[in-house]
Amino acid sequence: MSSPANDVWYQFVATGYNVTIQVNGLGIQNPNVALWQGTCGSLAGRGCATSNNGVVSLFVDQLVLGNTYYIQISGDDTEEGDLYLTVNNNINCDNCMLSSSLTVNPAPVNGMYAPGQQVDFCYHVDTYAEVNTNWLHGVQLAFGAGWDAASIITIPAQSYDQLGTWAWYPGGIIDNQGTPWPAGFYYDRFGDPLGGGTANDGDPGNNFGDHIPDNINGDQNAYIIPPNIWEFCWTVSVSDICVPGADLGITINTSGDGESGSWSNNGCNNDPTYVFNAFTSCCPPDLAVTEAGCDGNDGEVTATPSGNFGPYTYEWYDNNNVLIGNNTNVPGPETLSNLAPGNYSVHLTDVNNCEQIVNFTVGSSGTVPAPALSSNAPICEGEDLILDASIVPNAQYFWTGPNGFVSNLQDPIIPNAQASNQGVYSCYVVQGACTSATTQLNVALNPGIPVSFTVSPPVCIGQSHTITYTGAAIPGAVYNWNFGNGVINQGTGSGPYTLTWPSPGTFPVNLSVSANGCTGSSNGTAIVVANPVPGFSINPNSVSENNPEFNVFDGSSGASVWNYSISNGTSFNSASFDYSLSSPGTYYITQTVTNEYGCSAELVLPISVRPSSSIFIPNAFTPGNNDNINDGWGAVTYNVSDFKLIVFDRWGEPVFSTIDPNEKWAGYKNRNRRELIKQDVYVYKVWYTDAEGNEQNLIGHVTVVR
């Protein structure tokens, strides 16, 4: 308020929760207005407003009925003048609930639901105004008599101000004034302001409701509610008891906290309710059937509608869905006569276009003998089960039994019967229009014998297979093995067995086990693998000491791994290889070949290394000087044969010859120890055969030094 300023005061006694004060300044340019409560000397401000255009308006809510309130009006500084004052103090009777919506799944068909049908509902508050500061506090549901109220399952809404919890209260609540409220969703606050009670005390009647957080000024404007807020859902089922036309309506009412809670300002009293309408569909009619004779057409049926929703339309069909009767505008029950024994149906439609279809059978008052039943049981599992029914002339047979068995044969057969086929079998016959009584037969099966065995992996020729029985041990069982042309080395009864087969190949192994009158069998296979065939060549298979290299070439078959060993300790793991032997002699190469099954074989071949030949002849010597040094001359040989040496003087006359490679020439002429040759250069010639058998000759010179 402007100060200092002239002012004028008024007072009024509240008759409503809201007040709107409007001042038109007339002669005052900038009027100010304030509202006060309390007593003189102890006033508290409730609100104020200023204006610079000559008009000012002030709205204040949450007044207490019967209390005195004070209005102060002033201008700027010492401003004076006339004014026009309007005070509107009332109880706002506008609606809080402005719009809402209901989602239903499934929707009713022609406005109807069937007995026992489950329906999902979701009610959403779309637009809401907090009139007289009334916050949403409750959503009450009233169900028609056709619903099964005990089946309701509820999903409360999400809180708007997050200061409380919505919950379903099936027994209703009592508000702060002691007034009871029916079953519904109610808001129990745990945050300030509580409005009474204790936070989350489970008693919504003693606290405020769910506040719109955006409404910070407490105004009464309409607010659009988000889709995920204030959506109340429930699931409920139609009563299983069929009452045609039963009320399936639901009335949805909402209440502010001034109604069902602890807020003191009244409001929302006249909010509209949301009404959902539906009713229970029609019910099947009651049928009274009169049997026909076995071969007669004197059967009869009367259909009596449930309830009073005529006129009705009747459509009658036989077992082939052929229309045999059709009547409309029938006020009540209808009778269809002259029916032969058989199956029929009636389609009954009421005035609400609700259709019910009921199947019925016209029986026969005649009699037909029940069949006598037998079988080949007890049998063993895996054998064919043969069922037998006695002959009833001109009859149709109807068998049922375990494991979903049905048959219309007189003597049905169940191949490869198993444990699931044992039990009680039933059979009746239909002769004309007459049906016999049902007779039963209990069929038992002996457990089959599971047979199994293992055969060792593939083996090589000469090795033994091991065959081991792995089935269950059965006392007194007889084991019948069939090994073909396999030779049993060891084993009796259930085994285990060791066997050999004389040749490579795949050999069947069969076993049948008999016990307690039942036999089981199993088949297997034994595989015998041929050994690989060794083979290799050595080129050349004889080498010399001077040229010791040779090649080994693989010639085996069926091998996947090769191993060679030479008698000098060397080994190789390749199919072929090259090698050299440096020392003369005879060596042996062993080839071992292995196939992918581990079968192996070997072959041994020899190779020889011939020694080499060599010859050395000095070119000078000093015979006859008595120093015992270099006194003799001759050839130094190694591994030669057919040796011959001749020495010639310069005139071609022989002076020395020998066939002994170890003999040395002492310098005498033709071994005459009295005639030493003189110092000169002499010619020699040598003939010999080397280690390879080749004839060789040499010509050279030797100098005799004195």
What would you say this structure looks like, in words?
This protein is mostly beta strands and 706 residues long. The protein has 7 domains: 7-90, Sandwich (Jelly Rolls), CATH 2.60.120.380; 97-280, Immunoglobulin-like (Sandwich); 286-362, Immunoglobulin-like (Sandwich), CATH 2.60.40; 373-446, Immunoglobulin-like (Sandwich); 453-529, Immunoglobulins (Immunoglobulin-like), CATH 2.60.40.10; 536-610, Sandwich (Immunoglobulin-like), CATH 2.60.40.10; 614-704, Sandwich (Immunoglobulin-like). The strands form 18 sheets. Strands 8, 10, 12, 17 and 18 form a 5-stranded antiparallel sheet that branches. Strands 13-16-11-19-20 form a 5-stranded antiparallel sheet, with no helix packed on it. The chain starts with 6 loop residues before the first strand and ends with a strand. The model has no long low-confidence stretch (mean pLDDT 91).
Structural category is mainly beta
Query: What Rg, in angstroms, do the CA atoms define?
Result: 63 Å
Task: Bin the strand percentage.
Answer: over 45%
**What is the level 1 CATH name of the largest domain?**
Mainly Beta
Mean model confidence by pLDDT: 91
What overall form do the CA principal axes indicate?
Answer: elongated
**What is the CATH topology classification name of the largest domain?**
Immunoglobulin-like
According to DSSP, the number of beta strands is: 63
Residue ranges: pLDDT <50 for 5 or more in a row? none
Number of domains: 7
Helix content, binned percent: under 10%
Number of helices, counting only DSSP H or I runs of 4 residues or more: 0
CATH architecture of the largest domain: Sandwich
End-to-end span in angstroms? 162 Å
The biggest beta sheet reads: 5 strands, antiparallel
